[in-house]
Structure formats: structure tokens, C-alpha cells
Design a protein that fits this description.
- It is a single chain.
- By secondary structure, this protein is α/β, with parallel strands linked by helices.
- The chain is built from ten helices and eleven strands.
- The strands form two sheets. Strands 5-4-3-6-7-11-9-10 form an eight-stranded mixed beta sheet, sandwiched between helices.
- Strand 4 (96-100), helix 5 (104-114) and strand 5 (118-119) form a beta-alpha-beta unit.
- The N and C termini lie far apart (36 Å).
């Protein structure tokens, strides 16, 4: 495989590119990743243990949401939610969260075991949401413009788009070249960086940051939701894109 950069939008993307039909089949049963519980479907006893601990081993979004939404409860889509553990946590925190998941077995498992709403068809996901959240999903998608358009269709006016993904910035490539190269190819068809994110949301307010799994809360607090701002740190392991696409 080869990584190419688009001369128009700046996206680094893998060649050859997978077909949508092949990817849909792949994510039904074959996709597995040895990270936390992302693709592992636990037993009933394991689920009860996780629920009693409120899935404390997972990344939390509370700090970010309290800043961005002034501690109000909001409506959230977790796009690419696997079997819905973050949907469960967000609901436990008082939000009204639903999930979307391409894998039908994982969606059905989570809906049944956690008593939450997970949709398998994009058009069935309700609109007028306050936040579309995705964590390490966007790098798997083969049509990012279509994903951005879909996000707009499901968000209310001034709703937020929020995506975490591997950081494709040159500064991170210099810092950790082997990990940077491991962030594309195989199941990751795209590698997003600051320049692409700025281009994708060039007509909208945004805050684009990088960090080592945690992000500067002061920078998030200081964003006015109207400006186009990039964070000071460029060489973090992750890229965080927050934007108002509508």
C-alpha cells in the first residue's frame, strides 16, 4: 500500500482504496482490535462488573462536554459506537445519547445488553442532535466529504462535530516516526492532519488540537465557538477536531 496526499484538500489517503461493499462485509464479523473492550463482546458477568464501575477504564468525555455545553445535558450521537459502552456512560452522566454502528452484531449486542439505542442504518438516526461524537472512527471511512455532510444532516444549528483520530501532523511524524507510520494502512484508509482538518471546515468555526490522549482544557475553555483556532501543541499522539458545521 502507498500513502498519497491529495493536492486539493491535503488528505493523506491509502492506495489501493477499499470498496464500500467490502468494508461493510469486513466490519460485520472480521474486524477485531486488541484494545480495551472495543471489539470484544464480554460475558454477562463481565458486563455487570463494567456497569458497576461505570466503564471506568474507558476514556471519559465529561470534562470536555462540561466546558463545551456549560454543564447542560445534551443530545449526542456516538458515531461508530461498537457495542455502545460510551453511549451507556453518556446516558449515565445525564445526557440523551444514541449510537450508530456499522457492525450489526455489535449493535444488536449492545442494544440488548445495555438497554440503549444503537442504529445500524444511518438514515434511522434521529436528527437535531447537539453533538456528533466519534472516537477513532473517521480514519476508517472511505468518503470523508459524505461523512461531513451526514454530520450536518443530523446536527441542529450550532451543533458540534467532535472527532478523535490518530495525528497525521508532520511534527508527530518527527517525534514518533514508527508510530506515525503505523497509523495508516491496513484498516486505516486515511491519516488526518491539521491542514486537512482546517480545509474540511474552512467555512465554519473550529478548534483543532493535538494531545497525548488528554487535551488542554484551558484551550477548549477559551474557544468562543465562533473563531477558527488551532491549538499550540502539534506533535501529540491524537488529533481532536471540534467544529460547528451548520
Amino acid at each position: 500500500t502507498t500513502l498519497y496526499k491529495c493536492n486539493q484538500c491535503g488528505l493523506d489517503h491509502r492506495h489501493p482504496k477499499d470498496s464500500a461493499k467490502w468494508l461493510d462485509q469486513f466490519y460485520q464479523h472480521e474486524y477485531e482490535i486488541d484494545t480495551h473492550m472495543m471489539t470484544d463482546l464480554p460475558s454477562d458477568s463481565e458486563i455487570e462488573k463494567h456497569k458497576s464501575e461505570n466503564f471506568e477504564s474507558l476514556r471519559g468525555y465529561d470534562d470536555y462536554l462540561k466546558i463545551l455545553f456549560k454543564e447542560e445535558a445534551v443530545r449526542i450521537i456516538d458515531y461508530g459506537c461498537s457495542w455502545g459502552y460510551n453511549v451507556y456512560r453518556l446516558n449515565q452522566a445525564g445526557h440523551e445519547a444514541v449510537g450508530y454502528e456499522v457492525s450489526r452484531p455489535r449493535a444488536e449486542f449492545g442494544a440488548s445488553k445495555l438497554n440503549i439505542s444503537i442504529y445500524h442504518e444511518e438514515e434511522e438516526v434521529p436528527g437535531e442532535q447537539d453533538l456528533l461524537l466519534s472516537s477513532h472512527v473517521i480514519e476508517h471511512l472511505i468518503d470523508l466529504p459524505a461523512f461531513f455532510d451526514y454530520s450536518r444532516s443530523r446536527l441542529k444549528k450550532d451543533g458540534l462535530f467532535m472527532a478523535f483520530c490518530p495525528n497525521g501532523n508532520a511534527e508527530y511524524r518527527k517525534r514518533e516516526p514508527e508510530t506515525w507510520h503505523g497509523s495508516w494502512g491496513d484498516i486505516h484508509v486515511s491519516l488526518l492532519d491539521l491542514d486537512f482538518a482546517k480545509h474540511a471546515f474552512r467555512n465554519h468555526p473550529y478548534l483543532i488540537m493535538s494531545g497525548d490522549w488528554r487535551f488542554n482544557l484551558d484551550e477548549i475553555s477559551s474557544w468562543d465557538g465562533k473563531s477558527q483556532v488551532q491549538g499550540e501543541k502539534l506533535d501529540g499522539k491524537e488529533l481532536l477536531i471540534i467544529a460547528k458545521p451548520n
